[in-house]
């Protein structure tokens, strides 16, 4: 591609007015995200962990020394123009939910207490068959799933009007639903709509939110591991309505480490015989994951990453015997402060074994909140740039990237990062980095 081609590539509609971030599930992640944005725009904090706010992006040759911030290169919605709304099965305002979630200290919440108290969740579409460990009372009633989805659509329009927003994005931050496989009702949009009218058990609440968002032309991201917009019916709807869609399962703690370390071993042709990962966490998410069927959804997204990165079929001498085990244990005393241990058995020259131990004492929602921010801003940007359907370039943020039919997900953090930034370069009408001689300044 010539520079001229790239320059002509993307026209981005002007950023005007407010962007509403719609959050199904206003628990630890959502409240930490909203409180954090408010702290940043009140100059009480820096947006640490957010690429959209803090990362620079090289344009042109290295010697040209053009490294603007991503937010200065592209017309992202400014934080001051973000407004928030959402749904939850508990009728708690965002301040009370944030205090209960025990992620942020009261001293950090105090300056935005009034602001947070004004955001109250709308009644949720919820069914205990999909999240068995929770029981709330702030729940919609409807004769069929279709009727419930219609109520969500009407909520979306009401929230846009009441917040004075011009446009919206939705990021699912609700609890992990049970593991479901795609069913016949997921195969096309007519079957999906018929399934909703017939209350097909294969259609989960998160899919009703996704359907409602896409039907209203609102981009949708799934932060949880369960099946949601990643079925042909909703992919087709996203294309028909010209809406970007992405997911799934925010890549935060242990999997972030895994997808950084595994590419390092592979690039040096070091073998791996075993990778044992165990976690303790005590927040509500941990409680939900204590149900084996919700855990199954998480296990699937967490387990897939190593095979795709290490490619045992291409490197049988190095990875064919790899034993990969992932455990998650609910341990209430830890709250949101998860601890993830990895024991990695590797081998090198003449098969000599070595071990690596990782002990990541992380804070789940502190790592997830900036991802919600970046996804909201990048999905909005993508839509204004005329992109729609599955946004593979956002794989960087997910444990189990939602990709187009026939594509393999890319898990390598560094390839994902390059792809994300190259897509942003192209949006800006700049050349993507290929690391061919013209990029290298030789
Ligand atoms: N690092 C992370 O925190 C991280 C990483 C990856 C994925 N996730 C996923 O993000 C999601 C949110 O995590 P969290 O720590 O905030 O959990 P949380 O339990 O604190 O919050 C989830 C909220 O969703 C609500 N909810 C459940 N079903 C709902 C429905 N149908 N409609 C509306 N609200 C509903 C619950 O009442 C709860 O308040 C979880 O699915 C989790 O697995 C989190």
Model description:
This protein is α/β, with parallel strands linked by helices. The chain has 2 domains: 3-250 and 365-427, Rossmann fold; 254-361, Dihydrodipicolinate Reductase, domain 2 (2-Layer Sandwich). Helix content is 40%, strand content 16%. It has 19 helices and 11 strands. The strands form 2 sheets. Strands 3-2-1-4-5-6-11 form a 7-stranded parallel β-sheet, with helices on both faces. 47% of the residues are buried. Residues 24-29, 87-90, 101, 124-126, 131, 134, 136, 173-176, 205, 223-224, 249-250, 252, 283-285, 364-365, 367-368 line the site of nicotinamide-adenine-dinucleotide (NAD).
The appropriate CATH architecture of the largest domain is 3-Layer(aba) Sandwich
Mean pLDDT comes to 92
Whole-number count of domains: 2
Write out the CATH superfamily name of the largest domain: NAD(P)-binding Rossmann-like Domain
Biggest sheet overview: 7 strands, parallel
Q: Which ions, cofactors or small ligands are bound in this entry?
A: nicotinamide-adenine-dinucleotide
User: Strand order across the biggest sheet?
Assistant: 3-2-1-4-5-6-11
CATH fold group of the largest domain: Rossmann fold
Fraction of helical residues? 25-40%
